[in-house]
């Protein structure tokens, strides 16, 4: 090796749900032996020095004993996590002339164990998409991440088990077999939460079907043990399968959050149920380096908030903008990122602190002030964004003991899919997917009322002092009810049912 040598290796940093290119510059020069990493690294990146040193030594390679400087460019972007280990190691091996300079544009990502094993990293899909966008022909990733990276077409993905294996490949001694393109297969296993297991609650099940058909938000109120949680858990079983576009959207979010686990693809609609002690950062996302929160992890799926009034008010208020816009903007000192948050909100609550206000069999022990204070924890603007308000009463003994199953989720799901197909045809020329996402212009175009319907809606708005938002949401809900009945027009009975769900007693 000469007096000084410099190598440049390509990697990537994940910011939000996107990846930015990072150039790993490794310089070896004369001077006292030292190892310095610059370019705004966090603690995990700083510790890469020891992991890389041991991995190179234990892979029967030579660690340069000179002055080593590694720069991660651009220097104004924070570098977090151990995924830069592999490109740093390759950079040092090229700079020390143990490897030839790379001829094919390539990107490297992976954490190194002390024995040279390459461990998995987060956000691989975003990095693979960035690599393809920049024109890189090869993407070297940990073995566990290869199926995930292979979701992105037009780039060759190499699954790397160890640093030594990668060195053999780059020297042309023993080639790594590229990963085949990942085929997306929908999970068709039976759902453990099925509507047929829920006794009674026909009205609540009807409301659940309407919510699933149009992507509407829903609030259930009833005494403890009436089945609210079971109903919410059964909702994913009646939702239609995700489209390929939705699968990639959700998989990308879970990849960045590091929640894919052994599964390369997230094919089931998410169901997230955070505890009421969750902070607003856990719900909306954030941190020093913003990560997706629960509302983004529920994207294209269901966010279930049990015991809604028990959530701190400031936590619930952060839901208002995502419920309206379908995305959440997280601003931190490190920068601003936007996460998608197009989810169905399903919430449950008791009618009072003890849970038995209005129950015909068990008396309520709460005072009027306690009941009012309990329900005031949920703000009017948040309630206004919920389309369906439904009471879930206690189930009678006869229904509990009835041996016959109720209608199963498969049957309900077929009706939901048919209604969604009507909506797909309706919004074929726009980016709207379900009725609940309609903008003002689409509501005026598609939600046409008969004279009787106009009279009915006008009376409801005047009697219950409904806001313009509630007016629009009633029309969207009535449109979904019409779709479920395969009606071309919104009839008065569809509108009457929608008004009944929207009115808060």
Topology:
Elements: E1 5-15, E2 18-29, E3 34-38, H1 43-46, H2 48-58, E4 67-73, H3 85-95, E5 106-108, E6 111-112, E7 118-119, H4 124-133, E8 138-142, H5 146-149, E9 156-160, H6 163-171, H7 202-214, E10 218-221, H8 228-234, H9 244-257, E11 271-272, H10 280-284, E12 285-286, E13 291-292, H11 294-297, E14 302-305, H12 313-317, H13 320-325, E15 327-332, E16 335-340, E17 344-349, H14 368-375, H15 380-384, E18 388-391, H16 397-401, H17 409-426, H18 440-446, H19 451-464, H20 468-484, H21 492-502
Parallel strand pairs: 3-4, 5-8, 8-9, 10-17, 10-18, 11-14, 14-17
Antiparallel strand pairs: 1-2, 2-4, 6-7, 12-13, 15-16
Helix pairs in contact: 2-3, 7-17, 7-20, 19-21, 20-21
Relevant terms:
505 residues, 4-stranded mixed sheet, Helicase, Ruva Protein, domain 3, alpha/beta, 3 domains, Rossmann fold, 21 helices, Ribosomal Protein S5, domain 2, 5-stranded parallel sheet, 17% strand, 18 strands
Widest sheet, order of strands: 11-14-17-10-18
N-end to C-end Cα span? 81 Å
* Helix percent band: 25-40%
CATH topology of the largest domain: Rossmann fold
Q: Which architecture of the largest domain does the CATH hierarchy give at level 2?
A: 3-Layer(aba) Sandwich
Q: In what range is the share of β-strand residues?
A: 15-25%
Q: Given the structure, what is the number of helices?
A: 21
Radius of gyration of CA atoms, rounded to a whole number: 28 Å
How many separate structural domains? 3
Helix/strand class: alpha/beta
Give the overall form: elongated
How many β-strand stretches? 18
């Amino acid at each position: 090796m000469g007096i000084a040598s410099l190598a440049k290796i390509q990697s990537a940093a994940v910011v939000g749900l996107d990846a930015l290119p990072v150039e790993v510059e490794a310089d070896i020069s004369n001077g006292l032996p030292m190892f310095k990493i610059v370019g705004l690294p966090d603690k995990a990146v700083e510790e890469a020095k020891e992991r890389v040193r041991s991995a190179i030594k234990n892979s029967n390679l030579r660690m340069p004993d000179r002055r080593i400087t590694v720069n991660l460019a651009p220097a104004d972007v924070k570098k977090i996590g151990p995924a830069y280990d592999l490109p740093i190691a390759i950079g040092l091996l090229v700079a020390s002339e143990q490897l030839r300079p790379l001829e094919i544009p390539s990107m490297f990502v992976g954490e190194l164990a002390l024995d040279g094993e390459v461990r998995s990293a987060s956000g691989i899909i975003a990095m693979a998409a960035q690599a393809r966008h920049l024109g890189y022909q090869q993407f070297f990733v940990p073995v566990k991440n290869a199926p995930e990276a292979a979701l992105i077409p037009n780039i060759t993905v190499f699954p790397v088990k160890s640093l030594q294996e990668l060195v053999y490949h780059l020297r042309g001694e023993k080639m790594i077999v590229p990963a085949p393109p990942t085929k997306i297969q929908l999970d068709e296993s039976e759902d453990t939460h099925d509507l047929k297991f829920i006794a009674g609650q026909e009205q609540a099940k009807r409301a659940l079907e309407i919510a699933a058909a149009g992507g509407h938000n829903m609030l259930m109120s009833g005494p403890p043990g009436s089945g609210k949680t079971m109903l919410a858990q059964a909702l994913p079983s009646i939702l239609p399968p995700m489209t390929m576009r939705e699968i990639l959207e959700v998989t990308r979010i879970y990849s960045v959050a590091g929640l894919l686990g052994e599964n390369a693809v997230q094919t089931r609609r998410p169901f997230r149920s955070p505890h009421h002690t969750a902070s607003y950062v856990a719900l909306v996302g954030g941190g020093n380096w913003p990560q997706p929160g629960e509302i983004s992890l529920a994207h294209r799926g269901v966010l279930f908030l049990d015991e809604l009034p028990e959530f701190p008010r400031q936590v619930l208020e952060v839901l208002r903008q995502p419920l309206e816009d379908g995305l959440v903007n997280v601003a931190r000192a490190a920068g601003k990122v936007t996460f998608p948050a197009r989810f169905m909100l399903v919430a449950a609550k008791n009618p009072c602190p003890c849970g038995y206000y209005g129950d015909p069999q068990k008396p309520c022990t709460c005072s009027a002030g306690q009941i009012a204070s309990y329900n005031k924890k949920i703000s009017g603007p948040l309630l206004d964004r919920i389309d369906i308000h439904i009471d879930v009463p206690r189930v009678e003994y006869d229904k509990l003991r009835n041996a016959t199953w109720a209608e199963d989720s498969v049957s309900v799901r077929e009706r939901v899919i048919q209604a969604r197909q009507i909506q797909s045809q309706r919004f074929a020329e726009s980016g709207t997917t379900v009725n609940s996402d309609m903008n003002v212009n689409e509501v005026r175009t598609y939600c046409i009322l008969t004279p009787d319907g106009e009279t009915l809606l006008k009376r409801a708005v005047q009697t219950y002092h409904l806001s313009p938002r509630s007016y629009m949401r009633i029309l969207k809900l009535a449109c979904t009810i019409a779709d479920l009945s395969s009606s071309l027009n919104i009839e008065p009975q569809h509108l009457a049912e929608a008004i009944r769900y929207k009115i808060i007693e």
